[in-house]
Amino acid sequence: MGPKVLDTFLQILPHFVLVTVVGGIFTFWFQRIRDNAIRQDSQLQSIRDLIIEVDKLYRTSKQVKRMIRSRVRADPDSEYFGTVDQVFFEGRMDQLSEVQLELEHCGQVIRARIDLFQRPKTKRICNEIEYAESYFHDVIEEFEKQKVACKSGVYCLPKACTMLRDFVGPRQLPDDVRSDFKEMEKGASIEIRYAAWQRILEGLRNGQISGEDNRRFKPIADECLLLALREMREAILERLNAQGAFYRLVQRIPWPAARS
After folding, report:
1. 71 or 214, which is more confident?
2. Are 67 and 84 in contact (CB under 8 A)?
3. 27 or 51: whose pLDDT is higher?
4. What is the pLDDT of residues 120-145, one digit of tens each?
5. Which domain holds residue 140?
6. Which tens digit of pLDDT belongs to each residue from 195-251?
7. How far apart are CA 238 and CA 232, in angstroms?
8. Which of 98, 114, 232, 235 is 20 to 30 A from 151, alpha carbon to alpha carbon?
9. CA neighbours within 13 Å on the CB side: how many for 19?
């Protein structure tokens, strides 16, 4: 190697090292951004999937109620509030049982996926879903414990079945909770709605609401599911706002699939 070649090589070497180091750092930095963008997108999709599932279960429970109400024959002059075909009613109770079990599963997924929501939001969403799930469990339990009499292929629904009557009958709430329930429905923020619900629960637990024994109510169960859906939709907006335009641009890049 001649002196000129060696001199040229020594002049080029620092630039080559600099480019290699800077290129390696840039590649590592961009890879981290790419991986984070993919992870964020996966988490957003998981939240969207939960929203779709909870919304489907909410609508299914409403449909089951409407179907039963349309088939119940009122019997106000007896000890029963109505009668309904046995096969039809058993089918709707099976549907409601599936809703209850799926809601229980959704709550378990949310508790396990600590990467989806901040801890306070996770706790609120789980509490909201658990109330609705427990309400449907209470309704099904009255049926499963054979509190409903079956005569000649017809179920007679006793007025003593508080939860079944609450589920099938018209919307009813104790007068003492109407103000808080209205705020739970129409409060300006999730925090205000959640606080109104907590006041209702506290009143029921402490016996401050007259004529009730700490039981659950269908209108409140419905609002709990709607509140959980609001919480999850808010979480998506918060994530998108926090990511900014650059992350959203990175997420749109059609990255090649990672090699296994």
Report:
1. 71
2. no
3. 51
4. 999 999 999 999 999 999 999 999 88
5. 33-169
6. 999 999 988 887 666 556 678 999 999 999 999 999 999 999 988 887 765 555 555
7. 10
8. 98
9. 5
The H or E element that residue 73 is part of is strand 73-74
Extended strands (E) in 77-217: 80-85, 149-151, 154-158
**Out of 147-156, 157-166, 214-223, 235-244, least confident range:** 235-244
Whether 217 maps to a domain, the answer reads: no
Half-sphere CA count of 10, side-chain side, radius 13 A: 7
- Is 107:129 a contact under the CB 8 Å cutoff? yes
How many domains, in total, are found in the chain? 1
Q: Longest C-alpha distance within the chain, in Å? A: 115
DSSP three-state, residue 173: coil
The CA distance from 233 to 248, in Å, is: 18
Alpha-carbon gap, residue 138 to 135, rounded angstroms: 5
Closest of 51, 48, 54, 112 to residue 240, by C-alpha: 48
Domain-embedded: residue 86: yes
C-alpha 63/C-alpha 70 separation (Å) is 11
- CA 128, 131, 137, 143 dihedral sign is negative
Q: Let me know if residue 187 belongs to a domain.
A: no
Is residue 229 situated within a structural domain? no
Taking Cα atoms as reference points, which of 86, 97, 79 lies closest to residue 167? 97
